Amino acid sequence: MKVGFYEKDITPPLGSMITGYFNPRYATGIKEKLCAKSMVIESEGTLFSYTAVDVCNIPPDAMRDIIHGISEKTGISSNHVLVSATHCHTGSLLIRPTAENNKPGMDSSEYRIGQVIESAVYAYQHLQEANCRYGYGENSHFAFIRNFLLKDGRYITNPPRLDPNIDHAIGEIDPSVNVLYFEDLSGNPLGALTNYACHCDVVSGNEFSGDFPAIMAKELKKTFGPEFVSVYMQGACGNINDNDVTAPSPDSIQWYQEAGKSLAETVTSIIKSSEKMTDTNISALREEIILKVRKLPEGMLEEARQALIDIPASEERVYDFNDYSNPLVVRSYASRLVNIYDNLATVDPRGIVTSIQAIKFGDCYFYGVPGELFNQYAFYIKEKAPTKRTFIAELSQPGYNNYIAIPLFYESDDVYEGKVSSCWIEKGEGQRIAEKAIEVGKKLA
Question: Of the chain's two ends, which shows fewer C-beta atoms within 10 Å, N or C?
Answer without folding.
Answer: C
